[in-house]
Amino acid sequence: MLPGVIEGSISTRWCCDIERSYIFKKQKKTEQKKARMSGELSLNINIKEPRWDQGTFMGRAQHFFMVTDPRNVLLSSETLEEARVIVQNYRAGIVKPGLTEDELWRAKYVYDSAFHPDTGEKMFVIGRMSAQVPMNMSITGCMLTFYRTTPAVVFWQWVNQSFNAVVNYTNRSGDAPITVNQLGAAYVSATTGAVVTALGLKSLASRLPPIVSRFVPFAAVAAANCINIPFMRQRELKYGIPVMDENDNRLGESASAAKQAIVQVVVSRIGMAVPAMAIPPVIMNALEKRAFMKRFPILNAPVQVGLVGLCLVFATPLCCALFPQKSSMSVSSLEPDLQERIRQISPQTTTVYFNKGL
């Protein structure tokens, strides 16, 4: 009986996804047709939302392949500013003469790759999701290469967690400022916890087969993500993050929403690390036994970095797509006082939405 129920549930969900995707594409085609008939770009294109349907995994994957595109890191300040002006003008009802729909969407994704969705401020370049692949392939490749000595483990875990701290802060949810003292305390706590975790795992793995030792960096990164992300976003857990109704009207701040957002980000980050830190060690363990690698050991690090980069190009957007960027939860799951407030100001609202961060 149970397999039939599960099969029916999956089939129903699959059919709903197809129907939703069909409706979404039909609406897009209608908008494009109206724009062509009028001879100018329609003002009805909703660039507050991604171009692809976020109700399906494939739609989210297409969206994040654009957001995490490493080429966006190379864009000049002038290009970023031009994209910002195009997007903000369009939202205000001003269309640049000759602007096409594809150019508008390109500007929107350039804007999204460099500016924070809640604050609108330009993000620090290495903290942007478009910098994830080049930065992580270098750091992760070195962690997987230099894992045999304690000083090397400490140094590369410190580098990795320092980078993660920048990424976690840059991609935090909400628009409330964080003080320098809070940021410093979170950084020290998160980095110390990560390094201690790595050393503990290294000590344990020293009594196990060599191939197991190669996976110490992955285990340390996975454990460290569970420490680093909550520490760097602890203000959200204390004060909450903004929650909105379906029309983007702000209803209040919720710590419950922050917990859900942080859990989803931790799962996504660990998922990103799995291919990049689990596949290359197996390949390198086989390659290092070959005469060619024994003859040219200097190639170890470049090959490792290249393998990690290849994995990250796909793992980063696909794992970001595991959960919608605009996450949601039932009003009944919020704090009692916030539930009461929502019932008073928006009684018809049953679901709230929030930016989960990345």
UniProtKB/TrEMBL annotation:
GO terms for cellular component: mitochondrial inner membrane. The keyword ATP-binding does not apply. It is found in: Mitochondrion membrane. InterPro entries: Mtc. The chain crosses the membrane at residues 211-231, 261-283, 303-323. Keywords: Amino-acid transport, Membrane, Mitochondrion, Transmembrane, Transmembrane helix, Transport. GO terms for biological process: serine import into mitochondrion. It comes from the Eukaryota. The keyword Cell inner membrane does not apply. It catalyses: L-serine(in) = L-serine(out). One of its GO terms (molecular function) is monoatomic ion transmembrane transporter activity. Mitochondrial serine transporter that mediates transport of serine into mitochondria, an important step of the one-carbon metabolism pathway. Mitochondrial serine is converted to glycine and formate, which then exits to the cytosol where it is used to generate the charged folates that serve as one-carbon donors. Belongs to the sideroflexin family. This is Sidoreflexin. It comes from Acanthochromis polyacanthus.
